Structure formats: C-alpha cells, structure tokens
Structure prediction request, 335 residues.
Amino acid sequence: MKHLYSIILLFSVISFSSAKGKYKETNFFTESKFIYDVCLSKNGKVIICTDNNTIKAFSVENKKLIESYTGGHRNKVLCVAISPDSSMLASGGSDSTVVIWDFNTHAVVNRIDFAKGKITSIKFSPDNQFILFGCSNSQAYLCNIKEQRKVHEFKDQQLDVTSVAFTSDGSMIAIAGGDKIIRLYSSVNYELKSELKGHTNWIRTIGFYNQDKNLISGGDDKKIIQWNLSKHESKKTSTHEDWVLCIDFDNSLFNKTNSYVFGTMNGSVIINFSLGVYKAKLNSPISKVIFLPNETGMIEIAVATLGSGLKYVDAVSMQAIMYNPLKEVRGKKYK
Prediction:
C-alpha cells in the first residue's frame, strides 16, 4: 500500500482576495498531529476527526471538544464518515475493522471485522441503510447496517482502493484506487456499468456532482478530471504542481461557478473559482478538504494534513493565480 501522510486544517477565508496577511490559528486539542480524515455533521456545527485509535468531535463554533469515541479500534483510525441524517458515525482503521457508532450516545452499534486489509475509505448510502468501504487488499464491500450482513464484495480492482462514493440518489456506486480506473456499479444488481480511464497514476479522490451527471477525480498524476457520465468520457482536465489528494465542492455553487477546493501532497490548498485560482501553501501534505457551510458569504474550508494536528485558521490571505483558459488542459498558470 502506498502510504500517504494526512493532516487537518480549517481555513476561514474572508473573501477571494489576494491581499497578504498572517495566519491566525486556533488549535483543536488532539493527541496526534497526524489526522487521517475529517467529516462534518449535517448541520455543519460539529467537526469529526480521526485521532490515533479514537475519534474526536469538536464544536466548529468554539473549537471545544464535545466527545471522544473510544474502545472501537485497536490501532489507528484511517477514515471516518457520518450518516446523512447524522444519527450514525462510521470509522475504519488499520486494524481491518469498521465500527458503526451511535452518534448521539457514542456507543458502538456494530463492528465489521471480516475485511483483510486496512480500511481506506468509507461512506454511508443516502438512505442510511448501507455502508460502503474500500480496503488496501484491492477490494470494496457493501454491508446492510440493520441486518449486520455483507451484501456484496467488489473484486474488480487490481490495487488498493483509495476512494468510494454513492450518487445522491444511491443508485450508483463509484470505486477508485491504485489501478488508475474509476469503476461505476449499479447499487441494485451490482453490475459493472462503466470504467473511466484517464488517470495515469493512483487515483486518490472521487465525488459525484451536478445531480450525478458528472464526477470529479484527482490523483498522483497531478490531474483533476471532470467526467461527463452520460458519455463516459472526460469533460475537462487540469494539471497541477503535485499529487492531488483530495477535492471538495459545494453542489449548490459548483454547478453555477465550477468552484472547488483541493489539496496536494506538497501542502498546497487551492480554490478553483470561475474567475481565477486562489492558493495557500501549508507545511504538510493535505489529505482532506471540505467546505464548511456559512451564512455570511465568507468561505470556510476544512483541510486535513499530516504533522500539524487539527486547526482553525481565519483571515487567510490566498495568492491569486489566474488561469489562461487556452492553457487550462495543460495546467499552466498565469499571474
């Protein structure tokens, strides 16, 4: 398995401004400086992160610890997800175990331990009925939560699974990883519907958008590819300075502005906006970025990286870098 170091950082960007300033950081208290994954509650008020072999939940507003989820894993937790209704939490770890928690009581609801590899990615189905997770043994599994049973095992992948996803209606499953292929399956009969081929190295992140008509992916080939799923082909490709480890977008804005945020192995956090690109350079590799909901119109981003723990940073100044649209496919940037 190709190991990636991960970290978390929360940014609050006042506006898409290129003015220079200093980072003003607030630390969340975690035992480890290596935070492998992070997710957000439905109401956007609770941030949940991995922390060694535990999970911690913090208030986004005051940065204080709300709860620690302990006793579920024997080793490091590598991925975490919250159910769409925020009633359950799921975690996967290097101990090959998936744990499902009651989010409110913090009790273990179920433990899934039949997998052979490290659990690398995990997602709930939109109806809260199933859990999908990928492993370092090149397989992915779909389990029925209530019935506590394995429903299907996906075996087409040739190397580690690094990212899994559901469409918003739950009808389709996407699985990607080290063999450079994104595979799309029906969640009804588990039939392989399509293979998206365009990356030339490991794929690290995938996500559906635009009412599931498109998919976005990033990987070690330094590429972000936006796919047209109706034609099963790439719609737009941009190339960047280093491995693209994570991508996030606000669906309500993405379809209108094509805005998204991504993080790279060399510590860059980049917001791609319709009028340009805005960048901040951190000191550590970045494994996860998520937009935070905000009613004020300010941009707030959660970012996972390795070596700096969990932070909230406000008044961030990001360097403005404009794309030349004629050179976008080649990924060249122009100031």
Observations:
- DSSP finds one helix and 31 strands in the chain.
- Confidence is low (pLDDT under 50) at residues 3-23, 323-335.
- The two ends are 38 Å apart (CA to CA).
- Helices lie at 251-257.
